[in-house]
């Protein structure tokens, strides 16, 4: 491509609504333009990167045996009513009526449509397994679209849906998709982790998220550097930090702790480690026609409650924090000095796994300005119910026993789910099995946010000059910047020759023949983030040299004119693993 | 591709709502499935053909210098309000509100969005010309979607929009697009014609439609077999059929024609050719605060009025047919025996070009059961206003003077328009010209109905067994049908070997390893329309032969095993022009 025939629209400043670096840089590099909140044009230079992501995704989906089809953006409400999501889905589901007043939605996802295909087309186990995918425009009416393509309303997704005859089949398909995802993000050139995810509201059993590691990520990920264990902090198992409970050594003692309502203050006041203190969290669950059940959850002073784990415990679904009135009624004191010993009314005590193995610990006394030290299970209070109710922290043992966890931040770009029979049950997608009996299909679903990948790649790869694209999804792999293309025959001839050579070698190269000043040229291509740059000037040519600079290099290297093409071709191919 | 890993869903019967052959065959071949009225899934086999059309379109657009981008499906109402189309567009424009009650539309076309891009991004004549295109999903809320992908609601289009600094530039860009369209439809392998089109309601000056010739087409096209002249019948110039008016030879005579109100009856009654009779059509146009103007349009008895040409004549925009009361008031008689001589009140007479050169012709006498024969211009009534007001008919001289017109039916699959400044004016898309003065951009727009092309290709290419795909857009180019793939080692080995050889040669081949009976296999692939089939069986192999049959061949040819691959590769490449 020659720049004079292309469309380059770089900006000096990002618009005010661009909060994060990928949004700013995609706007400044002219990759996207805003049409409405969360709705963008992909300009030619941006679409080149989108298409490269799509091509990699498509190749790997095909390799994994998935079949591409295309489902419509506009879906009839009837299907969503059948699955129950017409009611369940919030206002993110854009609903509208057509000219005949029939209800439709703009598809944010396609479980309903694909299950409708499966129940009509698949009659026999002989047709299974099958895995359909599409690369398609979705719409999700976010209440506050922002972060550019990271949380847009209209976006491109690859979504795949698999149908198997049994759970073994589903597990095998799931593994194939997992492996395909690993290949996809590896080929794109991203630093990523597959993390065990909480299933959230999508339902089913077993799922992984694929996260691009970036400081600006929205999610906290716990991972083990010495193994492949990784999980969303929401879902990571928190093991007991004390393997076995030690025997009591202290006597129970009521100790004044004036003004020390928090564990940190108690530890400081009593000159004990924070790890000896206990945080008491009071929850309530409703009982129809009766007073609520009050729960006391006990965490070590330096730990925090995991909301999702807690709400999965028997009896705690839909819990809320207790009110101050309830706390006074059950504990006889306002919050701040609460503890499990001597409550006014019975409470259900749950101890975190670590707390359950502690001895000689400190709890509130249910009296303002007093704590109790030397507390021991069995001796001073009954053995507790034990559960994993806390968030993991850096340094925790990895659940796979292979080292200590670290915490990093990630951007979710892919998700694989084992849906099971959630949709086949509600929508009646059955097949005749080997015995001629109807059975529900076992479904999986597998998404990649194609346009989101671009944002995530930038969040992971940028500097103060602009984007630094991985070769595989760069809008161009190489830029040739001739200094004086319009003035110097030698420069022009050399630039044209190199351009032709690189093109012939299958390199995605752009020749900047716009006649801009070198400063403008360089700034544009650094902002756009082309990974390899060659500068051709009269001065260098006199010595038979060109200037090569990789986008991450701090300075240029001189290359002999005759070797430049091969050198650059080698670099690009090496980066692409060719 | 192996059929066992693919998804084939042929049907014995088409659904009842499928009226035309392409709809029936696409359903039966399992290419599409209905989701809602005018909304379809493209199943894997159908999507293969869609993608092949897209690839050809993309290659030729790029070759013509157009730049691919991607605009959103969901567009803010503000842009449509600016252009004026928010009001003008009918209920085909799907309007809806987002969760914040803001108005949006599902884009049926993208003039507004692209003009918004141009006015923001293009500041100077140095950035012109530029031509943006996309291949994108559109929605048009048809009142009665039907004919499958031919008149769907959700469909895929390639739409391009060009911006030039002046009309010369627009003409050049237009010509480039026209040429690209010719290459596209030629490569796809369709019998098509580019026809001069009436601009209809889209406005601007100069446009061509690209029609696939098919008996089931919706449009009548006049074309000259001995030149490249072609025009929609609506727009084709109707030349006078009489080069020069002959001198009068008959006297004016009032002749009884009892009961003969139609030209055909008059001709029969008086034993004269229909070409001597005149059809009188009475139109009216309103005059505010005064009585209407009454027009008498005179056509030869065998001709018909062209509504579009008529409404473009000065004073006749918005005309209507006169009421019976008006006819009685102006002509003194009810319809049936009307004529230009001796009206009660003055009427404006317009003669068709042919009528203007007639002599000794027959008109109504404005008296029931009477006509006047031997009528001559100049002698019996004043010279008329002359205009082209009729539809061309087969046998008319071609306007380019190169032969006689024929009429055929066509399916519109592409359209190129010179929009001029319609949108740049209403939306303020200006640039600074060479003199630093703001000027409106000259726009063109260029559409191809990607999914419609599939339907049109089928309407042109089918038989009673099913579809007959042109090689370039066939879901597969070659199918290998082994007889007894699961039973015969020889058959399986030969099939696998041929499959591998064809794949290596870049042929898009499917191996039917499903183990279906030959009758089922053959019927499936004939229905699906794969252009080349090879049958491998034990009996043939014993003689070292395979069976080849082209989809249009009435019987199979035996090919020596060793020559089969080369023969088929040669046939496919020849068909693709490689």
TrEMBL record, chains A, B:
Q: What UniProt keywords are attached to this protein's entry?
A: Aminoacyl-tRNA synthetase, ATP-binding, Cytoplasm, Ligase, Nucleotide-binding, Protein biosynthesis
Question: Got a GO cellular component term for this one?
Answer: cytosol
What domain notes does the record hold?
A: Consists of three domains: the N-terminal catalytic domain, the editing domain and the C-terminal anticodon-binding domain.
Give the residues annotated as coiled coil: none
| InterPro entries xrefs | aa-tRNA-synt_IIb, aa-tRNA-synth_II, aa-tRNA-synth_II/BPL/LPL, Anticodon-bd, Anticodon-bd_dom_sf, Pro-tRNA-ligase_IIa, Pro-tRNA-synth_IIa_bac-type, Pro-tRNA-Synthase_IIa_type1
Q: What is the E.C. number? A: 6.1.1.15
Per UniProt, residues of the Aminoacyl-transfer RNA synthetases class-II family profile domain are 33-470
GO MF terms, alphabetically ordered = aminoacyl-tRNA deacylase activity; ATP binding; proline-tRNA ligase activity
Q: What's the encoding gene here?
A: proS
Q: Which domain of life is it from?
A: Bacteria
Function per UniProt: Catalyzes the attachment of proline to tRNA(Pro) in a two-step reaction: proline is first activated by ATP to form Pro-AMP and then transferred to the acceptor end of tRNA(Pro). As ProRS can inadvertently accommodate and process non-cognate amino acids such as alanine and cysteine, to avoid such errors it has two additional distinct editing activities against alanine. One activity is designated as 'pretransfer' editing and involves the tRNA(Pro)-independent hydrolysis of activated Ala-AMP.
Q: How does it assemble?
A: Homodimer.
The subcellular location is:
Cytoplasm
**Catalysed reactions, as listed in the record:** tRNA(Pro) + L-proline + ATP = L-prolyl-tRNA(Pro) + AMP + diphosphate
Q: What is the name listed in the Swiss-Prot or TrEMBL entry for this protein?
A: Proline--tRNA ligase
**Family stated for the protein in its record:** Belongs to the class-II aminoacyl-tRNA synthetase family. ProS type 1 subfamily.
* SUPFAM superfamilies xrefs: Class II aaRS ABD-related, Class II aaRS and biotin synthetases, YbaK/ProRS associated domain
One GO biological-process annotation of the entry reads:
prolyl-tRNA aminoacylation
């Amino acid at each position: 491509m020659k720049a004079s025939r292309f469309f380059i629209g770089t900006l000096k400043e990002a618009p005010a609504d661009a909060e994060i670096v990928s949004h700013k840089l995609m706007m400044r590099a002219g990759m996207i333009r805003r049409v409405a909140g969360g709705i963008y044009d992909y300009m030619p230079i941006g679409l080149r990167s989108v298409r490269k992501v799509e091509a990699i995704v498509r190749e790997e989906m095909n390799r994994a045996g998935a079949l591409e089809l295309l489902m419509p953006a506009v879906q009839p409400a009837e299907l969503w009513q059948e699955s129950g999501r017409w009611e369940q889905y919030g206002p993110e589901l854009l609903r509208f009526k057509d000219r005949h007043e029939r209800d439709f939605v703009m598809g944010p996802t396609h479980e309903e449509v694909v299950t409708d295909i499966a129940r009509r087309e698949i009659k026999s186990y002989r047709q299974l397994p099958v895995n359909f995918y599409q690369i398609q425009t979705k719409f999700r009416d976010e209440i506050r679209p922002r972060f550019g393509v990271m949380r847009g309303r209209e976006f491109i997704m690859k979504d795949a849906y698999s149908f198997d005859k049994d759970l073994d089949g589903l597990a095998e398909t799931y593994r194939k998709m997992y492996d395909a995802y690993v290949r996809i993000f590896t080929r794109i050139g991203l630093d990523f982790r597959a993390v065990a995810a909480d299933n959230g509201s999508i339902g089913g059993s077993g799922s992984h998220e694929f996260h691009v590691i970036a400081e600006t990520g929205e999610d906290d990920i716990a991972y083990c550097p010495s193994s492949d264990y990784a999980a969303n902090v929401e879902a990571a198992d928190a093991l007991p930090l004390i393997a076995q409970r030690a025997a009591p050594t202290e006597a129970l003692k009521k100790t004044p702790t004036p003004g020390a309502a928090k564990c940190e203050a108690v530890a400081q006041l009593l000159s004990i480690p924070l790890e000896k203190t206990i945080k008491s969290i009071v929850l309530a669950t409703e009982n129809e026609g009766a007073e609520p059940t009050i729960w006391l959850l006990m965490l070590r002073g330096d730990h925090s409650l995991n909301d999702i784990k807690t709400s999965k415990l028997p009896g705690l679904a839909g819990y809320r924090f207790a009110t101050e009135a309830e706390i006074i009624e059950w504990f006889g004191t306002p919050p701040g000095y609460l503890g499990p010993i001597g409550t006014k009314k019975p409470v259900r005590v749950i101890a975190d796994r670590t707390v359950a193995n502690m001895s000689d610990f400190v709890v509130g006394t249910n009296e303002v300005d007093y704590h109790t030290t030397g507390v021991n299970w069995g001796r001073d209070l009954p053995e507790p119910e034990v559960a994993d109710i806390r968030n993991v922290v850096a340094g925790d043992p990895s659940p796979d026993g292979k080292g200590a966890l670290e915490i990093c931040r990630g951007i979710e770009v892919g998700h694989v789910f084992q849906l099971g029979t959630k949709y086949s049950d509600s929508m009646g997608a059955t097949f005749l099995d080997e015995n001629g009996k109807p059975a529900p299909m076992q479904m999986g679903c597998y998404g990649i946010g194609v346009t989101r990948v671009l944002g995530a790649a930038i969040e992971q790869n940028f500097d103060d000059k602009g984007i630094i694209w991985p070769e595989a999804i760069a809008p161009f792999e190489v830029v040739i910047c001739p200094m004086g293309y319009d003035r110097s025959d030698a420069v022009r001839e050399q630039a044209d020759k190199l351009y032709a050579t690189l093109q012939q070698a299958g390199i995605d190269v752009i020749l900047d023949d716009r006649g801009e000043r070198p400063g403008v040229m360089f700034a544009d291509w650094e902002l756009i983030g082309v990974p390899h740059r060659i500068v051709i000037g009269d001065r260098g040519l006199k010595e038979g040299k060109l200037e090569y600079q990789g986008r991450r290099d701090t300075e240029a290297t001189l290359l002999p004119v005759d070797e430049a093409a091969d050198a650059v071709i080698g670099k690009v191919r090496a980066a692409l693993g060719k």
